[in-house]
Design goal:
Number of strands: 12
Helix content: 55-70%
Pfam family, one: Na_H_Exchanger
Strand order of the largest sheet: 3-2-1-4-5-6
Subcellular location: Membrane
Radius of gyration: 27 Å
Membrane topology: Multi-pass membrane protein
InterPro entries: Cation/H_exchanger_TM, Na+/solute_symporter_sf, NAD(P)-bd_dom_sf, RCK_N
Protein name: Cation:proton antiporter
Shape: globular
Number of helices: 23
Distance between the termini: 73 Å
Length: about 600
């Protein structure tokens, strides 16, 4: 490798890291920063770096690994959570912008093949960034969240399949009926072999490696690289594009194929190598192909494509969503959420440019369209869901319910006894004796380290709506809250913070994971645990005669020189919820506390 290529690679990686970090600070995916920085440092603007054969090879490999990682992140079981509504959103959000994109390009003088590529690009939905946006907007426990995830999954998969078929016809050139049948036969054979390999051969390889006690992470990573690039090459051989083979390879690398810790490790390695290293090279160098001249020469086409991308995705989703009977306003919210584009769209557009199907101007327009639509998602989704909230139409998805409680100490068991009257409650504790005591008292308790994902999986953390941390270790409470937020997306998190904690760092971390404090303030937990163990407490129930914030209620008790620990609030229907900060006690609701 020449020194000039090394310098170019260094500049691209540095720029990708800087651009991605800056855009993430304002709440957007790093991909946008990488595209924008590519436009800035590339030939279009500053001209610091130009593409080279080295960068092209690394970028192509990066796309393959990125598509494999996207496949690894997909869970097809999520489709069942949205079913009919998700399918409607996906079809409407893909078909309508696909058709509009096609006609805009062909009516403006473009070829039919270019129109099809543009149609696919405006029809896709960014799957990779949806979970993060939903967590940030506190929407993960709503029906909209499940519809969005299912819709994005179906939309991206549909786009890849259509693109794969289109690539076959492009490579075959002019085709007759026998050629069409041959292409279809090759596609069927590819999907048949890939499915058989993923469902039957790969699990047996995993079982054999486990039997041989092969636990070297490098060995597994190398094996998966061979599988990913092998299926990519097979896809190329049958006339499909390699990204489809990589995507399918990723889909089959699921829980149960290898040991949980091995799967976790190699997933993290794939993330670091693809998202952290090689894929950014692709997105930065994609920015090199963007021409700013489109704002002068093709401004009308740019506005038209951006317009149909917005209108087609949102209106198409609204119209097709009507048979779900969930309401057109919810369809509007789903449409605004699905409006963002991202990795798959840029990959498809880049391949279209490489094959000469679309021009540099069209490619530039598609990049700007992806940037503009993705920037709109948090703004429009926040507006539309707030509208639903005000109307009382934001539906919660009750597939997540119950309380996952860290710590099975006597005080936690007392709180769990109240909450378990109407909800599922599961405890996690690292002390085997304490866990056995909880089981003896009739509770479900998982023994293990809360910071080990295997423990949380054993407790089925992904099924819970609320996480409570009641240990005397503030650091463990905070770290556990961060883990269940980032990995298992539990929407509600309430933890105990002791008075000895420095408030700044704790509050900042709580806010970063959308958590709040139990008992509506700092509490020295150990004396209360001891009282609960010795049964040296009195349980009191009072009814509120007015609406009052939980924090104000606690201050009122302190003003009366009462040392109390509020456990739960009981609503007028008898349902109990934990007493926590940022909540209110309504008139006629009850508070159960101990003194």
């Amino acid at each position: 490798m020449e020194g000039f290529d090394i310098l170019n690679l260094f500049i691209v990686l540095l720029a990708a890291w800087g651009g991605g970090a800056l855009i993430k600070r304002i709440g957007y995916p790093a991909i946008l920063g990488e595209l924008l920085i590519g436009v800035i440092i590339g030939p279009s603007l500053l001209g610091f770096v130009e593409s080279s054969s080295t960068l092209v090879i690394l970028a192509e490999a990066g796309v393959i690994l990125l598509m494999a990682y996207i496949g690894m992140e997909i869970n097809f079981k999520d489709l069942g959570k949205a079913s009919w509504a998700g399918l409607l959103a996906a079809v409407g959000g893909f078909v309508v912008p696909f058709a509009l994109g096609y006609y805009v390009v062909t009516l403006s003088g473009g070829t039919s093949m270019a129109g099809l590529f543009v149609g696919i690009a405006v029809g896709v939905t960014s799957l990779a960034t949806k979970s993060r946006i939903l967590v940030d907007l506190n929407l993960l426990d709503t029906r909209i969240a499940y519809v969005l995830m299912a819709g994005a999954l179906i939309s991206d998969t549909l786009a890849l399949i259509i693109f794969a078929g289109l690539s076959s016809f492009i490579d075959a050139g002019a085709v007759n009926m026998s050629e069409i049948l041959l292409i279809i036969g090759k596609i069927i054979l590819f999907f048949g072999f890939s499915t058989a390999f993923g469902l039957y051969i790969l699990p047996r390889i995993g079982q054999w490696m486990a039997k041989k006690n092969i636990e070297n992470r490098t060995t597994y990573f190398t094996l998966l690289l061979l599988i990913v690039f092998g299926l990519s090459e097979l896809a190329e051989l049958v006339g499909l594009h390699g990204i489809l083979g990589a995507f399918i390879a990723g889909v089959f690398i699921k829980d149960g194929v290898f040991k949980d810790q091995i799967t976790k490790d190699i997933t993290h390695v794939f993330h670091d190598v693809s998202v952290g290293f090689m894929a950014p090279i692709f997105f930065v160098t994609a920015g090199f192909h963007v021409t700013l001249d489109v704002f002068q020469t093709d401004l009308g086409l740019l506005l038209a494509i951006v317009g149909v991308a917005f209108a087609g995705k949102i209106l198409g989703t609204v119209i097709f969503y009507l048979p779900s009977r969930n309401g057109w306003r919810e369809g509007l919210a789903v449409g605004t959420g699905m409006n963002g584009r991202g990795a798959v769209e840029i990959v498809i557009a880049g391949i279209g440019l490489q094959k000469g199907i679309i021009s540099q101007e069209i490619f530039s327009i598609l990049v700007f369209m992806a940037i503009i639509t993705t920037l709109s998602v948090p703004v429009l989704l926040t507006w539309s869901t707030n509208w639903l909230k005000k109307r009382g139409e934001l539906v919660k998805q009750f597939s997540r319910e119950g309380y996952l409680i860290l710590g099975a100490n006597p005080l936690a068991l007392l709180l769990g006894k109240h909450l378990s009257e109407h909800n599922k409650v599961v405890f996690i504790d690292a002390n085997k004796g304490i866990c056995e005591n909880a089981k003896h008292k009739g509770f479900n308790c998982v023994h293990g380290n809360i910071l080990d994902e295997a423990t949380l999986k054993e407790a089925s953390a992904k099924d819970f709506r609320t996480f409570l941390a009641l240990t005397v270790n503030n650091e463990i409470n905070l770290l556990a809250s961060q883990l269940v937020n980032d990995t298992f997306y539990i929407p509600e998190k309430y933890i105990v913070i002791s008075p000895i904690t420095e408030i700044g760092g704790s509050i900042n971390l709580l806010q970063s994971v959308s958590a709040s404090t139990l008992f509506s303030g700092k509490v020295d937990l150990q004396p209360w645990i001891q009282k609960a163990q010795d049964l040296n407490y009195k349980e009191v129930e009072v009814t509120s005669d007015k609406k009052i914030a939980t924090r104000e209620w606690v201050k009122t008790q302190f003003s009366k020189n009462k040392t109390v620990l509020p456990l739960v609030i009981v609503d007028i229907s008898g349902i109990k919820r934990p007493f926590r900060f940022n909540d209110s006690i309504e008139e006629d609701e009850k508070v159960i506390y101990i003194v």
